[in-house]
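Re: your question about NAD-dependent succinate-semialdehyde dehydrogenase

S., sorry for the slow reply, the queue was backed up all week. Below is exactly what I fed in.
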Amino acid sequence: MTRHLLKNPDLFREAALIDGQWITETPHGHSELRNPATGEVLARLPRCKEEETTRAIVAADKAFRAWRQTTAKHRSQVLNRWWSLIVENKEDLATLITLEEGKPLSEARGEIDYAAGFVQWFAEESKRVRGDVIPAPRETQRIVTLKQPIGVCAAITPWNFPAAMITRKAGPALAAGCAMVVKPASQTPLTALALGELALRAGIPPGIFNVITGGDTRAIGGVLTSHPLVRKVTFTGSTEVGRVLLQQSASTIKKCSMELGGNAPCIVFDDADIDTAVEGILVAKFRNTGQSCIAANRVMVQAGIYDALAARLAERVGQLKVGNGLEPGVQIGPMIDAGAVSKVEEHVDNAVAGGARLLTGGRRHALGGCFYEPTVLADVAPGMAVAVQETFGPVMPLVRFERDEDAIAMANDTEFGLASYLFSKDAARIWRAAEALESGMVGINTGLISNELAPFGGIKQSGLGREGSHYGIDEFLELKYLCWDGLHPSFA
Ligand code: NAP
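Result:
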């Protein structure tokens, strides 16, 4: 069934990818994958456990030893072929994302553009990895630095961006000369496997890009974080799981990158351009049905424009079209699963019980299943669960503030520090606020901040390291220093 929805049915794989081989059976049986919009079974994936994960790591290490010897120019050409195959197969990849993750097809297409961007960018960056020559303390010495690929990288990725969260890691890793074992989220393996098929077609050697499937998450994660051949763990997901993976990686001292949860504040000052703010907030909040780590989780509005902005936002949110992401015109898809809907319901009920006002939405959607109404809540107090925890759903809490410094204090009053948003026309006010905000990224008069050119990442408990941009490849490189003596400066 799923196969027939694709122009290129070979992109639909019900198998793990280990050492260039499609593994359809393991001794551990299969797990079923369901479409969050319809509940239908999309695929049956072989369950991998310790043994299969170890096989993938050993294969990756073998492949790495040859791949690291290739020239940067060669890796760049191979990655560029991967990029062009991803772009050529955009429609099929987007369809797979919508089927397994639920986001509207137009957004899924946007995710493929975004995901492909990382492969193209790092294909270029591979040629720009440079060492250094440092002035030495003695005339007979030279100090030289080299940057070398770290080795086998384990990537553990979330379901909310099934393509981009993989290419944001695999692009720089492969460009640097590393090999990768990917454990995609159990809910979204099909996109990862299609990327694997395209990687093989592009000429990425067997063993360089492996994908492990099945729901035995702890068994797989346990091996990925403890096997001595894995030198790097790159994780995107919740802070809670990131903390566990960091602890597990400590025993073998692996280099770790952590892209974790957020609780993004969005501050709208009273001099903001209202149209710009409305558009920016809508995209920052409702993209991917609110299931984005940089989603505006708390919208703080200055008292002077609070009522006007709240009315405008409620009107627009009330018009958002909810439905199966494959249907034309749909703007809000299902949430990923029943647990996610319950969390949103709990946050909204708790806020209303505490005195917040529903301006629109506030219930499970009439479509049933995993659908929830796009919601705007006014008069939210900063301590309510909806403003303290990552709600990860289509709910916009509005918090009123009077003085600029109060907004900054509220914004920073969280253990998270991923993204923040500011809306104002006053450059000095923006600069002051942007410097004071404790987050790795600040969107100013925009709700769209992710692209392959910029360094993505958080501070505090939102993470370690950066992905994308010219900084992103350093996460997959080791710095080696050569102290070379006996170089007598005189020709005599
Ligand atoms: P999650 O529950 O932390 O899962 C993320 C990944 O970790 C999945 O592949 C999951 O596998 C795996 N995992 C869970 N427990 C594990 C364990 N004990 N050992 C090894 N792997 C384990 O997060 P999610 O619900 O998929 O994604 C939502 C979260 O990701 C949100 O907090 C969001 O903010 C964050 N996120 C952050 C960024 C960023 O760039 N900072 C981007 C996107 C999302 P299973 O699927 O098999 O459980």
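The mean pLDDT is 97. The first helix runs from residue 50 to 67.

Happy to talk it through on Thursday.
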